[in-house]
Amino acid sequence: MNAHGSPLALTPEASLNRMPVVMTAQDEPRPARYWVSTPALLSLIHEHNPGDERSVRQFLTTFSGEAEADQAILQTFAKRLIRVIQTARTGQAWADGSDFQRRYAHYWQSCETLVLAGGLTSGEFGQQLAHLLENALAPLNVLVSPWAGQTGLVGLAQHYGSAEPLVVMDFGATGIKRGLAYHHGNRIVPLPELTVDHWLDDQGLFRAEAFRAVLKDTREHLDGRLPLAISLACYLDHGHPHDYHSGVYHRLIEDCEHLATTLHQQWLPGAGFSGLALLEHDSTAAALAFRFSKPAMMVTLGTGLGVGVCPRHGGV
Fold first, then answer.
1. Is residue 6 over pLDDT 60?
2. Residue 263 in contact with residue 230, Cβ under 8 Å?
3. 44, 11 in Cβ contact below 8 A?
4. What is the mean pLDDT of residues 73-102?
5. DSSP 10-63
6. pLDDT of 58 over the 90 cut
7. Confidence tier at 227 by pLDDT (50, 70, 90)
8. What is the pLDDT of residue 5?
9. What is the domain partition of the chain in residue ranges?
10. How far apart are CA 304 and CA 267, in angstroms?
11. Which of 10, 90, 245, 298 could pair covalently with 287 via S-S, beta carbons 3.0-4.6 A apart?
12. Number of H helices and number of E strands within the chain?
């Protein structure tokens, strides 16, 4: 039940999180998530403004381009993200890899539009970040999603395109966003967000028991049996996790023979839902909210960096 059946349906080989990036000639290569992520932004807040006790969410809410420290944080973060995108666009990280990686490298090189989404693109900070990137990366077009951290929910809902109500859930690395979508995904009523760490086992993993518990918790906020569309911070292979070791969701591969089928036939009906409408990788779900006539890429900025291929007009 993956909707994004393009030749570039992404795999762990496409990870931006783990892509080595050298920021300056004096630096050792570090994974891109070291430079641009929620922990990286929090570190910059403390570095540029010692004594600043704002969380990342508070910083984004109160960000002012007129404040010297805030502007310095923005400029540094933008320079880092520019370098990450420049590194991706060279294709060097994947050029000598598998056939998929070579095609992926070529897609980055041919990409004409970059869309930024995720929690770190909220408000004025996100708008100014996109502006700085577009100036530095011209002729690449850079857009910022108007839905920020809710973009994945919108992508799920609009791609499924139901006139009837649809429950949408985004299982992220640190939070689980939920909503009730109406009118082909053009209106989403948010449901209470959950923190992921509350549901992790002793090994720090999100397993089947937690998945079923979260579904039951979500059902308590609804009046009737509805279909559910899900995005997951985990690379998927035709509706089942790839066998790799990253993030909190990857060991769901051991909890069922096929995740999408088990969700549709067992876990969702058991929790009071009518079935599975869609299951997607989280950044791919965000990419589904946008369509372009030329190659375009979605980059989500949050706990880490996600990437998804935006669909083309008339097909994926």
1. no
2. yes
3. no
4. 96
5. --GGG-STT-EE-SSTTSPPEEHHHHSSHHHHHHHHHHHSTT----HHHHHHH-
6. yes
7. very high
8. 44
9. 14-145+290-309, 149-284
10. 28
11. 298
12. 11, 11
- CATH number for the region 14-145+290-309 comes to 3.30.420
Q: Are 246 and 131 in contact (CB under 8 A)?
A: no
Task: Return the number of other C-beta atoms located less than 10 Å from residue 243's C-beta.
Answer: 11
Query: Model confidence over 279-302: pLDDT tens digits?
Result: 999 999 999 999 999 999 999 999
Res 312: pLDDT: 86
Judge contact between 297 and 115, C-beta under 8 A. Answer: yes
Burial class (CB in 10 A: 0-12, 13-18, 19+), 40: buried
CATH number of 149-284: 3.30.420.40
- Residues of the chain above pLDDT 90, percent: 91
Return mean pLDDT, the chain. 94
Amino acid present at 103: R
The span from the CA of 112 to the CA of 76, in Å, is: 24
